[in-house]
Amino acid sequence: xxxxxxxxxxxxxxxxxxxxxxxxxxxxxxxxxxxxxxxxxxxxxxxxxxxxxxxxxxxxxxxxxxxxxxxxxxxxxxxxxxxxxxxxxxxxxxxxxxxxxxxxxxxxxxxxxxxxxxxxxxxxxxxxxxxxxxxxxxxx
Length: 140
Fold this sequence. Notes:
The chain is of the alpha+beta class. About 25% of the residues lie in helices and about 15% in strands.
């Protein structure tokens, strides 16, 4: 199965999502989107495929969101996408694309909805939260 993750290695949610993908036995295509941002077309496609509004795809925490006054409800989707293109750190993460679907994987276990059921044993997040039991069955 072909899987792509738009990843930020400094983000625990993104690292947990990547680890869950690998736990299925899949080695995904990893795009570190801060180094290689998606094109505008790709970003808009990711947002739409995930069933999100553009505003839902904008990251606030640890970004220039406030400084750019992106909380202004008068801003259009195009203006928000412009901001994300100029400052990729504003793109919420991680987006994951599989043949089953596209998700913004927040929380990280949202990725389980778009992966095959080929989990190999127990899995816990970095913080110790158990996600899969010894048989690879979902706990959360």
